[in-house]
Amino acid sequence: MHRVVIIGSGFGGLFAAKALKRADVEVTLIAKTTHHLFQPLLYQVATGVLSEGEIAPATREILRRQSNARVLLGLVEDIDLTNRVVKWRFHNEYHETPYDSLIVAAGAGQSYFGNDHFRTFAPGMKTIDDALELRARILKSFEIAEFTDDPEERRRLLTFAVVGAGPTGVEMAGQIRELADSTLRDEFRSIDPSTARVVLVDGADQVLPPFGPKLGRKTQKTLEKLGVEVQLGSIVTDLDDEGLTLKRKDGSTERIEAACKVWAAGVQGSELGATLAEQSGAELDRAGRVVVDHRLNLPGHPEVFVVGDMAAVPGVPGVAQGAIQGARYAAEAIQARVTNTAGPGSFTYRDKGSMATISKFAAVTQIGRLQLTGFVAWLAWLFLHLLYIAGFKQRITTLLSWFITFITNGRAQRVVTNQQMVGRLALERLGARSSGKLIHGEDLTERN
Amino acid sequence: MHRVVIIGSGFGGLFAAKALKRADVEVTLIAKTTHHLFQPLLYQVATGVLSEGEIAPATREILRRQSNARVLLGLVEDIDLTNRVVKWRFHNEYHETPYDSLIVAAGAGQSYFGNDHFRTFAPGMKTIDDALELRARILKSFEIAEFTDDPEERRRLLTFAVVGAGPTGVEMAGQIRELADSTLRDEFRSIDPSTARVVLVDGADQVLPPFGPKLGRKTQKTLEKLGVEVQLGSIVTDLDDEGLTLKRKDGSTERIEAACKVWAAGVQGSELGATLAEQSGAELDRAGRVVVDHRLNLPGHPEVFVVGDMAAVPGVPGVAQGAIQGARYAAEAIQARVTNTAGPGSFTYRDKGSMATISKFAAVTQIGRLQLTGFVAWLAWLFLHLLYIAGFKQRITTLLSWFITFITNGRAQRVVTNQQMVGRLALERLGARSSGKLIHGEDLTERN
């Protein structure tokens, strides 16, 4: 039986496995989390609208009825392209899984553009752990401000800086604003949460660059009406526990004292990209993504596909649709290989549009040349997200959670565990080498 | 204005604050978590039925419209009974809050009966952190078993031991069984989850001792029909990473190799009890609970009330109703004190009955002399729990989550974060002094 190994349970990995449902192959999906992640809604977990379960169904539950697929929990450490073996481990157990075809969809982490020391103080938005860490930091800031007498420190605690004005950054900024203005209203006695300052920073000259200048301007206006300060053409030159320093294009600098920082600025392809590049001679782009050929193959390796955020394919954006379409293409090519039929031609990406929510009832949507804003765009956003959330249970509870949040402004998921209250920062001081490593469970599982 | 300080946001603390809504007092509630906790449903978070948000609404959200109440996040370290000051801190900030009346409702932790080293290997069921840690351990056991070839180790991974056959223990055992038999069915390829062994251990001669022998026998029969092994008259003499050792009344011993252990066996009153006892001369019972007088007062301190799990009151069980009724009584007494009117007489507990679910559609309920079992008891359980869950949002999403679980056997909340995957054990090895401390955020926040 032809053995297909898939690395990753994100959009790329999961949709590749599903696309092989009727293929005469043996699928093994190896992932470092037990869940699939609907990353586009991660910001709603970070801001208390959704529970983690609603956007992260168990991968093996989704694939339970697909008898040709098995799911294994493990961190892939190495790929031996010559002997066609994937080497992975969980805790101290090492395993080797051989393959005939390989789909690498290990995704991307957040890039700090060479300033990895920012990471500790400004978590990214890539994992459930990130979202829960941010939820804790956001809510903790209000909690501490409530009993802080020093007005300067209180101001710092109530300042939230979001770096990166792509969809995730825009959505986070809008949600923190709504949290402060509506959800937390009347809950504090010493502070007025609506006086919180939310700053959205980007080096570009507009918000949502891929949406074009017109939608960018409209989005910026909506954000500013909500009370988000938009700082464009500004790059972050320094970022620490206390705040961050911006440098504008005109050379001027500004220091913003902010307790809570969110990093939504750039992506860095999985470290597995380097492993693949080293052995195959493939190139990596500046974001560490593997440059694949027009069949999504690693050069010289028709049996290895790289899809999703860790692949650099001209014209394919790093969004769910890019990963899903790449995964389906790879599955089709593998099926052709197994059945000895003509495979698909070159991979072509079909742009299904992009969308971002700004606030309740306001979104921007671009589908081809059609640009929508406001309530209509928001309805389109609602419908499409519900459609793509995996799992029946998740779909109906998410709809209910949204309904509740929309009508009450309340958020049902505001729990901060003690572990999260303690936070990554303390764990690092305790000995974990870096939160970047910690978040992938590497440092600690190694010692367990 | 008369200042009332309340310590704790559990049933005692929250209901005390709410009962003072119309009183001419200034209420300050200090708690170490930002949420209230509906502890009776904690086992459903541990087994993936409910999200943490559904049973843990934010305390300040519940009290938002009560203008005479403020909520502060902090860990109370000391109470100065002479100067009437509560000393608390959050991270490195120390605060003192004076009071005219004090309600101490800091609850209880799990007791390991002198074997505190068991704690690391068998988490209790007292906090959201506990439940999420257990969820991770339970699901991780199945995940690791899936790629473990050694049959003995696989057996150990698929053995779950629940210590303590009170309601929480019975509910956990029943839920782990259902998880293994229904929820996880067809999800694995190398193991059959239904071959998992679930052992329920108690030193007593029956399960659910407070329900009496008849309901105990019925519950045991239902549990055994489900596939739970019930080991009564057995105490745990040893417990480590690998398993546990039981000693029976006849002197025989048995070693059970079990990767996942749950401790639901005893309670230990909050450490604040010792502080109160030392200064007032009050006695502590064996479980470290403060022996209060018939007005729930600390001896010699009519301005200090101790309610809920940290108070020892003859005839009052350590359940939600005990805390709620105690809290309401204390609030009434304080109102009388403020208005200079005759206060309530001695505290009397009104038994509203007890209940425990065993599995889907099966529960046991005792209300006075009325004993119910099976579906009727389960319906009573469903209705009463929905009634007592705080928060409209929580109530409707819980109902939906239950509905989904009942009809599909699926569980929507199976996420294990990386932090939880790493787990407490690894954190301890990393340097945290004990998970007991860690779970209260003490060790780490100190260093933060």
List the helices and strands and how they pair.
2 copies of one chain form a homodimer.
Chain A: E1 2-7, H1 11-19, E2 25-31, H2 42-46, H3 52-55, H4 59-62, E3 69-73, E4 75-80, E5 85-90, E6 93-98, E7 101-104, E8 108-110, H5 128-146, H6 151-157, E9 159-163, H7 167-183, E10 197-201, H8 212-226, E11 228-231, E12 234-239, E13 243-248, E14 253-257, E15 260-263, E16 267-269, H9 272-280, E17 290-291, E18 297-298, E19 301-306, E20 311-312, H10 320-339, E21 354-359, E22 362-367, E23 370-373, H11 374-388, H12 392-408, H13 418-430, H14 435-439, H15 442-447
Parallel strand pairs in A: 1-2, 1-7, 2-3, 7-19, 9-10, 9-15, 10-11, 17-20
Antiparallel strand pairs in A: 4-5, 5-6, 8-16, 12-13, 13-14, 18-19, 21-22, 22-23
Helix pairs in contact in A: 1-10, 5-6, 5-13
Could you please describe the fold and organization of this structure?
2 copies of one chain form a homodimer. The two termini of chain A are 36 Å apart. Chain A is an alpha/beta fold. Chain A has 3 domains: 2-32 and 74-110 and 268-339, FAD/NAD(P)-binding domain (3-Layer(bba) Sandwich); 116-265 and 353-416, 3-Layer(bba) Sandwich (FAD/NAD(P)-binding domain), CATH 3.50.50.100; 420-448, no CATH class. In chain A, helix 1 runs parallel beside helix 10 (320-339) and helix 5 (128-146) packs across helix 13 (418-430). In chain A, the strands form 7 sheets. Chain A has a 6-stranded mixed β-sheet. Chain A has a 4-stranded parallel β-sheet with strand order 11-10-9-15. In chain A, strands 4-5-6 form a 3-stranded antiparallel β-sheet. Chain A has 15 helices and 23 strands. At the A-B interface, helix 3, strand 3, helix 5, helix 12 and helix 13 of A face helix 3, strand 3, helix 5, helix 12 and helix 13 of B.
